[in-house]
């Protein structure tokens, strides 16, 4: 069960965030409303939400998931691969000191964005992507091992982050899309294959038996409902314009 969630309000500069989506610039006012609804939905799932102020220095700073990995025993501050995002982690480290006595850090030349990390019990799958390099993944695995966890790498070819195409919903249920569907690493999961026309919906989040699902993906919504979860629909259209989704917008622990 998760007790805490940390989010950061989107900033006006988000319109200049990194994107490959080709969906135009986000509407800041609408993004703010969608973010407020996201927070309300998380509260419904029984977690305490810590809301950080918008940070205009970093256009992508609402995507807090990338700057730290929060485990049951420690928090690991990452070192973002995207240069315009490097520095977002500094304040997060201070915030996480309120929740963790053990805080670790990824060091140069390692880069990691925690959107590339999927927790499955005590094991962590780490995507090797344009943002997370081999050195960063290796550092991450040795830190995890120090706390009794394990980690393994999953090379990415197309996706931005590992969790752009995977979401673990507990109970062995795994939403899986695109390049990951045929990857034998995931063969023992109960795979819920996300149809190609709903690819973005692979980025859902499990929060205490609720599953937050992005608005506009009825097939995925139905498949998750059938598994018995309480489905919460959240509109993330403005964050999608920046390649971001439900998982990217929070740290859950
Ligand atoms: C970026 O490119 O870094 C942001 N525009 C989107 C980050 C999405 N984060 C995530 O998937 N964890």
TrEMBL record:
The record's section on Pfam families has: DDAH_eukar
InterPro entries from the xrefs?
A: DDAH-like
Q: Which residues form the active site?
A: 161 (proton donor), 248 (nucleophile)
Question: Its Gene Ontology biological processes?
Answer: arginine metabolic process; citrulline metabolic process; positive regulation of nitric oxide biosynthetic process
Q: What keywords were assigned to this record?
A: Hydrolase
Example of a GO MF term: amino acid binding
UniProt lists the family membership as follows: Belongs to the DDAH family.
Q: Which PANTHER family match?
A: DIMETHYLARGININASE, DIMETHYLARGININE DIMETHYLAMINOHYDROLASE
What is the protein name for this chain? N(G),N(G)-dimethylarginine dimethylaminohydrolase
Q: Which organism is it from?
A: Acidilutibacter cellobiosedens
The taxonomy runs: Bacteria, Bacillati, Bacillota, Tissierellia, Tissierellales
């Amino acid at each position: 069960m998760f007790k805490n969630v940390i989010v950061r309000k989107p900033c006006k500069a988000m319109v200049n965030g990194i994107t490959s989506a080709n969906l135009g610039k986000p509407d800041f006012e609408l993004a703010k409303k969608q973010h407020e609804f996201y927070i309300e939905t998380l509260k419904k799932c029984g977690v305490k939400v810590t809301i950080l102020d918008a940070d205009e220095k970093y256009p992508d700073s609402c995507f807090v998931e990338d700057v730290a990995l929060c485990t049951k025993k420690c928090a690991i501050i990452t070192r973002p691969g995207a240069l315009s995002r490097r520095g977002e982690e500094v304040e997060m480290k201070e915030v996480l000191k309120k929740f963790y006595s053990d805080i670790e850090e990824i060091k140069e030349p390692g880069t990691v964005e925690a959107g590339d990390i999927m927790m499955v019990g005590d094991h962590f799958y780490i995507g090797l992507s344009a943002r997370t390099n081999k050195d960063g993944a290796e550092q991450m695995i040795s830190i995890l091992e120090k706390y009794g966890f394990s980690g393994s790498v999953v090379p990415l070819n197309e996706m931005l982050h590992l969790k752009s195409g995977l979401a673990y919903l507990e109970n062995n249920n795994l939403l899986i899309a695109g390049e990951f569907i045929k990857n034998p690493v995931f063969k023992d999961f109960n795979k819920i294959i996300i149809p190609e026309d709903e690819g973005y919906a692979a980025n859902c989040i499990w929060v205490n038996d609720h599953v937050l699902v992005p608005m506009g993906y009825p097939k995925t919504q139905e498949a998750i409902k059938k598994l018995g979860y309480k489905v919460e629909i959240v509109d993330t259209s403005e964050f999608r314009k920046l390649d971001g989704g439900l998982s990217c917008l929070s740290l859950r622990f």
